[in-house]
Design brief:
Length: about 425
Amino acid sequence: MRQENPDIDYIRIAATALPFLLAILTLSAVGRVDRIAMVVLWGTAAISLLWLLARYRADILRERRRLRIGAGGRERGGAAPLALVRIVDGMADPLLLLDMKRRVLHANRAARTLVGEAIVGKDISFYVRHPAALEALDAAIASGQPAEREFTLLDPVERACMMRAGIIEAGEEDATARFVLASILDLTKMKRVEKMRADFVANASHELRTPLATIAGFIETLAGPAANDAEARRRFLAIMGEEAARMLRLIEDLLSLSRIELDEHLPPGGAVDLAPLLENIVNTMAPRGKKDAPEIRLSLAAALPPARADRDQLVQVFQNLIDNAIKYGRAGTPVDITAQPVERIPGRSEGGVAVTVFNQGEAIPPEHIPRLTERFYRVDSARSRKLGGTGLGLAIVKHIVSRHRGALAIDSVPGLGTTVTVYLPSNAAAPAA
Ligand SMILES: Nc1ncnc2c1ncn2[C@@H]1O[C@H](COP(=O)(O)OP(=O)(O)OP(=O)(O)O)[C@@H](O)[C@H]1O
Ligand SMILES: [Mg+2]
């Protein structure tokens, strides 16, 4: 089908035909051709001209039809004005043009992707069945005023949407003809963010309220029934100290998270030599005092390029990962840390360094893995809480890695254990700090 600009072709054809016509005119003017030849020449010119006009008209009609019915639809009478169709096509949001009986005259590409190719030419209720969505259209049609309603699309996947409808007068032949311009907004992402924010407040309050309630309970006991019980006082004060420490850790983690988020858009510029950094962390974390403390084994590639990183944040990342490996690893088994250069960071085009932290033990069920970096998400909340966890460690890791323009991968293999890999871009140009 002729598409972008059919006029160009006709201009070309006309330009080729022009010298031919001029030649006929000149020859007839000077009387150098006989009558029969003249009739043949003028006849040919007239037939060509008629053919050209017919083709032009057919192309224009075809183009109009294409714009009206969209790529996948079938037209069933009625027509949307061309100018409106072009505006709708030029917009990125899903837009539909309907007549005042709710029949879809045109759908732009985004709308067809959302509700399906076959929608054009049909009543919209065939495809968007939700009463609220139809109510928005009906309200706009009845009142002539813009209307909007939220609804849920279930097919092919569940999405929260909003139907917005307005009436426009824009007929081609009849200037007062009215059409419905409807947009379907996908609110799924916005709703998810809204829910995450609400969940976050609920989770943070819950995490703070639990230790606070414990402390308040013990204060009451110490002030009343256990006032003179030295043994109970000693025990209760120890628990209160633990709970207070947990609250402090939680608040520190939350503050740390918001600090990281604040400058997440600014990647660090420093160069950090990973070998001494990792050795230091391992040395501080290894003697955790317990007799069954796991051995932490470090294996570093010989030529490690420096990482483009913020030293303090990297310490936070590896302390969190090693802490998890120790906490959730099988007792008595070692934790293995490796670091090696990589040609490409997953999802990015540059090379860097990959640091892996591996522990043996129970695998994390696969359905939990994508959610581990959410704030307060824990596979086994009770167990994690008992081990002193706040559920913020991996969220902090994720945001730091994202600020570094690196990547994070968590792999867990049943019967083997869990490997967490941090990819960091290298900073070969700058001298390592
Ligand atoms: N190496 C691991 N092996 C098994 N499960 C793990 C491992 N690392 C993390 N997890 C699971 O992921 C959850 C989230 O980890 P995260 O580090 O964010 O929180 P946490 O360790 O519970 O608390 P925090 O790190 O704030 O003290 C943990 O509760 C645990 O269920
Ligand atoms: Mg942790």
